[in-house]
User: Fold this.
Amino acid sequence: MKKLTLTLAATAMMAMPLAATAKDSSDPIVIPIHNWSSQIVMSHAVGQIFESMGNAVEFVTTDSQAVYESVRMGDVALELEVWEGAFGASFRAALEKGGLHDVGDHNAVTREDWWYPMWTKDACPGLPSWEALNACADLFKTAETGDKGRYLDGPVDWLKHGKERVDALGMDFVVVNAGSAAALWAEIGAAEKDKRPVVVFNWTPNFAEAVWPGEFVEFPEWVDGCDKDPSVGPNPNALYDCGNPAKGYLKKAAWDGMKDKWPGAYATLEKISFTNPQIAEMAKFVDIDEMEPEEAAAEWLANNESVWKAWTN
Ligand code: TMO
Assistant:
């Protein structure tokens, strides 16, 4: 019996193409998941691609800043959405320490910043300039914010530094952090009925652009070092006195050990590249169509076989 098994195994090995000699580990590839829809759906889509190649995959929900430390240590294998605006600083810090590397950019241009639906501009026609927004601060007053305007920022772990920016630029706004991405969409949705002016954190690519036409507020242009060197940006004594990059990158990152442990999956990761419309659609499946992320990922893969199958050879 034992002999027969060995013979079968040997036969199977001989039938394998030479290129498959470096085989992926059977340990699960651990993929981190965060708190916005495109990242969750994309992570499941890539997990399902890896599974189609015979790999085991596990998902773990992690903080979106601390994850760079987790990738560096190999606790998770990769990160699929490194947004320049929100995570560039944590990514760069982890790169300097070593243990993770840049696996290239998606074919996408990203922006994350203060944003308003178009009806807000009807009430404050000087927009999109930040000075015009500030002159209209009265329009955004709420009971909670007193005589200052309300700005609903993203959840705290996205580290948008809204409060620091308000201080650095001397703005008449109070920054409130949303508890979740869903709270941002609820704020816009609630304002829509009576076209109440609102300004909230938003980003692109995202489903929101197809639902609510809108614009980003134009702050002083991002300059490298604006988050590290007070002399950079218009206020010589403050950090965060610039907008986020208007043409930010969206990168993939991997643990340095991934290449040797799962060479097949790593080769696919190198080729993976999603576009702005593809990423926006992933978010839409969850935020508009109310699919579960796994289901949304499967739907996306079923509709786009020619896109992702090319990444697996
Ligand atoms: C990290 N995000 C895309 C939500 O700005």
User: Anything to note?
Assistant: The longest strand covers residues 111-117.
